[in-house]
Design brief:
The chain is mostly helical. The protein is built from five helices and two strands, in the order αααββαα. A two-stranded antiparallel sheet has the order 1-2. Helix 1 packs antiparallel against helix 3 and helix 2 packs parallel to helix 3. The longest helix is centred in the last third of the chain and has 25 residues. It is globular.
Length: about 150
């Protein structure tokens, strides 16, 4: 549980750093904003699934502005913090059932879903950094080791 908790502290830190960078550059690069909003919307979908609620109508790709991203960063951090605070080690292997956006049903452990959320966001934050560099903007250092230092 300590490792998962640390992964989520890093996730929240990395999201905040990306958000601050995007706020400072304006909305010139819509592709970057679309990727960041995808991270946040996907987090919301997975949080909803972890809570045992229907996520089938929630978007995972949408053109949203920086204000919506800011709200999602705050909401997702609060929801994930609450979820993790109430989660016991024994709950990590509990299976959750959910239906994806295409209507297909799946079951995965809470542990696997939490791992997926953290890795999914890091993958797309890497894409964001690649696009920032291509635009001549300094990439955001979101390395885990930087976080733990």
């Amino acid at each position: 549980m300590k490792t998962i908790q640390k992964m989520y502290e890093h996730l929240n830190w990395a999201n905040q750093r990306i958000l601050e960078t995007l706020q400072s550059i304006g909305d010139e690069n819509q592709d970057v904003f679309r990727l960041f909003s995808h991270i946040l919307l996907a987090e919301k979908v997975w949080i909803t699934r972890l809570q045992g609620l229907d996520s089938s109508r929630l978007p995972i790709w949408s053109d949203v502005d920086i204000e919506v991203c800011t709200e999602l960063v705050i909401q997702n951090e609060e929801s994930l913090t609450t979820f993790l605070t109430n989660l016991a080690n024994t709950d990590l292997d509990k299976l959750i059932s959910y239906t994806n956006s295409k209507g297909k049903e799946f079951k995965n452990s809470v542990r696997d879903v939490l791992t997926h959320i953290a890795l999914h966001g890091q993958y797309h934050r890497g894409q964001i950094n690649s696009r920032l560099r291509a635009e001549g903007i300094e990439p955001v250092n979101i390395d885990f080791i930087t976080f733990v230092r």
